Amino acid sequence: IKLFDIHSLTMEQLNRPGAQRGLLYDSIVRAIARTLPLRAVRRGRQHFLIVGGQREKEPRLKPLVDITKRVFGKIPQTTLSWAEAITVRVEHANDHLWLLLEPTVLGSTVTDETPADERQRRKEFVRERLATRYNKRWNELLDAWINVLSGGQEKWTVSTFGLTQGIDASFTINATTGFSRRHQG
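The structure assignment produced for this chain is given below.
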């Protein structure tokens, strides 16, 4: 990279797939992960923040560990690993951009060389780990992830590169979750 410059992004550009939306996703996921014990992972068009490598002891991950007990490990009888993660999406509604987080579990990426039995064990392991996450537990897990990301703050700002001078993408995120209810009309 030889030069940073400023370019406007319109809501229309961010509402449809394309380079501008991809840039937004890459920037915000990298910004969130930059100062946390998380890794930014992209699989196809999906973006994830994933717990990685020997980090269960990180104080920032305590809310997540308290609920899940383990945040990463090996899938039994395979060479594959798994980790707690969140899917990160950005949606535009009511003249605001909304950061949508969905707790999930990711298994190692499989290739054509991955044996079929390991693929099946991976699929079953992830399904079983997610199967007991009903409303109350799901909400607790989402709150734990928000606490991990925010450090307990109501509002926080993250930046993609952490530059003190020059141009950097920064995002201010509010920890308040959005709620929905049935319209009584």
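Interim note for the steering committee: The radius of gyration is 18 Å. The chain has a mean pLDDT of 88.
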